[in-house]
C-alpha cells in the first residue's frame, strides 16, 4: 500500500508550531449538555461533512424520540459497584461534556445514568462486561466508568441487536491506574449508533482502548482523550470491517494538555461491497503546556472490492517545540494479488489464502484485545464476513 498524508516531527527536528490555538475549529460550539447550544447540522460543517445525516433517523435534528428499548446486562466481579444515578450526579461530565448536537441530545434525553466503579488499588482478575442488546426503536444512554487510583481493570462493552441509539460514555481513570477498554459494535444491519467516548487519564495512568466495528447501517464513534496530570499514557486501537452499504465513522481527538504524556493511535479497516464507506478522522492537539509529549497516529485501509470509499484524515497541531516526538500516517490500498498468488502457489486454496492475508492485516490489533473469548469471536466474525464475499 502506498503511504499518503504522512508527516512527522521528532525531538531535535523541525516541528510545525501553531501561532495561536485553534481548538475552536475542532467543534462547532463549546462543549455543553444543552442541545440548544448546538445548531442542527446541515452536512457542510467540517465535523459532519462525511456523515449521511439522512440515515441518522432524526438523532441530529431532534425528531428522534425515545420509543425503543435495550436489554442491558452487567457482569461485574466482586468489589465493583454498579449504580443508577440522576443527571445531577457530580461525576457526570467529569471526563468531558458533549461536543456535538447528537451527544447533547443523548444527554438531554436521559433522566438516569449508570455509574460503574472500581475501587482504588483493586486489581480485577476478570473483565467487567457490559452487554447492550437493542430491541428496536430509539434509545439514549449515559454510562460512567470510574476507575480508582492504582486500580487495574479490563472493561468489555458489547453492542448487539437493533436500535437507533445515541449515547455518552465516560472513562475516568484515576492516578496510576491501568485500564483496557474493548468496545465491540456487532449490531444488526439496520442499527444506527452514535456515541461520544470521553476519557480523562490521571497522572501516570495508562488507558488502552480497542474499538471493533462490524455491524450497523451507520456507526459514528467519537473517542476523546485528555489528561488530568503529567505522565499519562493513552493507546487507541481500532479494527473495522465495512460491508456493502455500511457507513462506519471513527473520529478521534487526543488533547495533550499536560506535560510528559504519551499517545499512540492505530486503526485498521477493510472494505468490501458497493457503497461501503469508512471514515477515519484522527485529531491530535499538543498544547503549549504539554512539553515532553510523545504521540503518533496511524490509519490503514485495505480495499477488497470495487465500489468502496475511504476518507482518512490525520491532523496534528503542535503549539510547542519542546516535545519528544510527533507524527502521523495514513494509507489506503487494494488487496494485493501477489500475496494471494504466493500462498496459492504453495497449495493453499484461494478462499483460505484470502482469509490468511486479511487475518494477517488485522493480527496485531486483535492481539491487543487480551480477552481470549472476544478474540475468538471476532476472528470467527471476520471469517464469516470474508466467506460471505467469496460466496
Strand runs, count: 17
Number of contiguous helices:
4
Determine the strand fraction and express it as a percent band.
Answer: 35-45%
Structural class: mainly beta
Distance between the termini: 26 Å
Instruction: Return the string of H and E elements.
Output: EEEHEEEEEEEEEEEEEEHHH
Supply the number of structural domains: 2
InterPro entries: Fe-S_cluster_assembly_SufBD, SUF_FeS_clus_asmbl_SufBD_core, SUF_FeS_clus_asmbl_SufBD_sf, SUF_FeS_clus_asmbl_SufD
Family: Belongs to the iron-sulfur cluster assembly SufBD family.
Domain SUF system FeS cluster assembly SufBD core: 134-361
Pfam families: SUFBD_core
What structural keywords apply?
single chain, 391 residues, mainly beta, 2 domains, 17-stranded mixed β-sheet, 14% helix, globular, disordered N terminus, SUF_FeS_clus_asmbl_SufD, SUF_FeS_clus_asmbl_SufBD_sf, Fe-S cluster assembly protein SufD, Fe-S_cluster_assembly_SufBD
Amino acid at each position: 500500500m502506498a503511504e499518503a498524508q504522512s508527516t512527522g516531527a521528532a525531538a531535535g527536528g523541525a516541528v510545525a508550531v501553531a501561532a495561536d490555538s485553534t481548538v475552536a475549529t475542532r467543534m462547532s460550539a463549546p462543549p455543553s449538555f444543552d442541545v440548544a447550544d448546538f445548531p442542527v447540522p446541515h452536512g457542510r460543517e467540517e465535523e459532519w461533512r462525511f456523515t449521511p445525516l439522512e440515515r441518522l433517523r432524526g438523532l441530529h435534528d431532534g425528531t428522534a424520540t425515545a420509543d425503543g428499548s435495550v436489554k442491558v446486562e452487567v457482569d461485574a466481579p466482586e468489589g465493583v459497584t454498579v449504580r443508577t444515578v440522576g443527571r445531577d450526579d457530580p461525576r457526570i461530565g467529569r471526563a468531558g461534556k458533549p461536543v456535538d448536537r447528537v451527544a447533547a441530545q443523548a444527554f438531554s434525553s436521559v433522566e438516569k445514568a449508570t455509574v460503574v466503579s472500581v475501587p482504588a488499588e483493586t486489581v480485577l482478575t476478570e473483565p467487567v462486561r457490559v452487554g447492550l442488546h437493542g430491541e428496536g426503536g430509539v434509545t439514549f444512554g449515559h454510562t460512567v466508568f470510574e476507575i480508582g487510583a492504582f486500580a487495574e481493570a479490563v472493561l468489555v462493552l458489547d453492542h448487539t441487536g437493533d436500535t437507533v441509539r445515541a449515547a455518552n460514555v465516560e472513562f475516568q481513570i484515576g492516578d496510576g491506574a491501568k485500564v483496557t477498554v474493548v468496545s465491540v459494535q456487532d449490531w444488526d444491519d439496520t442499527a444506527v449508533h452514535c456515541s461520544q467516548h470521553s476519557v480523562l487519564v490521571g497522572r501516570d495512568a495508562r488507558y488502552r482502548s480497542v474499538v471493533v466495528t462490524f455491524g450497523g447501517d451507520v456507526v459514528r464513534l467519537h473517542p476523546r482523550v485528555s489528561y488530568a496530570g503529567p505522565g499519562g499514557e493513552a493507546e487507541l486501537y481500532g479494527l473495522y470491517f465495512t460491508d456493502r452499504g455500511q457507513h462506519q465513522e471513527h473520529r478521534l481527538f487526543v488533547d495533550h494538555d499536560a506535560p510528559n504524556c504519551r499517545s499512540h493511535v492505530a486503526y485498521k479497516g477493510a472494505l468490501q461491497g458497493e457503497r461501503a464507506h469508512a471514515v477515519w478522522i484522527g485529531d491530535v492537539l499538543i498544547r503549549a503546556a504539554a512539553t515532553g509529549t510523545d504521540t503518533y497516529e496511524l490509519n490503514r485501509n485495505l480495499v477488497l472490492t470495487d465500489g468502496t470509499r475511504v476518507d482518512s484524515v490525520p491532523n496534528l497541531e503542535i503549539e510547542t517545540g519542546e516535545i519528544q516526538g510527533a507524527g502521523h500516517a495514513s494509507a489506503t490500498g487494494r488487496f494485493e494479488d501477489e500475496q494471494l498468488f504466493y500462498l496459492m502457489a504453495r497449495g493453499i486454496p484461494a478462499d483460505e489464502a484470502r482469509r490468511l492475508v486479511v487475518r494477517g492485516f488485522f493480527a496485531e490489533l486483535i492481539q491487543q484485545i487480551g480477552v481470549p473469548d472476544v478474540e475468538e469471536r471476532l476472528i470467527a466474525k471476520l471469517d464469516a464476513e470474508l466467506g460471505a464475499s467469496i460466496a
